[in-house]
Amino acid sequence: MSDLLHRLGAWLHGQMPTHAQLEANRFTAPFTRRPELFRFTRRSVPRGVAVGMFIGIFALIPGVQIVGAALMCVPFRGNIPLAAAVTFISNPVTTLLIILPVAVAIGNSFGYHADIATVEAMVREGAGLAQWRGWLLSDTAPAVLIGLFIQSVVAAFVSYFLTMWFWRYWIGRKHRARRHRSLFRHVESEDGQPPVKTGDTEGIA
User: Does the predicted model carry a pTM greater than 0.85?
Assistant: First the structure.
């Protein structure tokens, strides 16, 4: 499990925009002067993940996800780089195979009869903002938007609580490792010999 979490953390770190990149964007530049939006704390991290999950699923328009995540992080006091990284949960593969089919199924359960062929084509072709504005006036838009909204809200709540659990697990693991090191140093200082690490030292806490 630790290897999986390490890989997930490495992926998120690779997707995070740097402070300089956010500062170079005219829409996100004003937020770079607020250091509290860039700190990794037990409150800002889950909020940032939840914001990124919501924007990443609901806002499928390329180019607006990072800006939308930054804007939403301000009132929720989430971590902006982390939120921006999580928006990449939606990409052409996950959008076409998971997000859109689930959204249409949810929307059609409200009595709509959406056809997502046009939306799938727009995602594959990387449609711009003008094309998405035109699509919003179509008959299929309400079903897809309702489905995306419900899906993104559920995903945001689930990711928020999962991230809180992960944060406590990670911090607890660091504390246990620190106590192990402290115990070994204490034993070494008492007998003057390096402590022998036995097989059951993993359970010391």
Answer: no
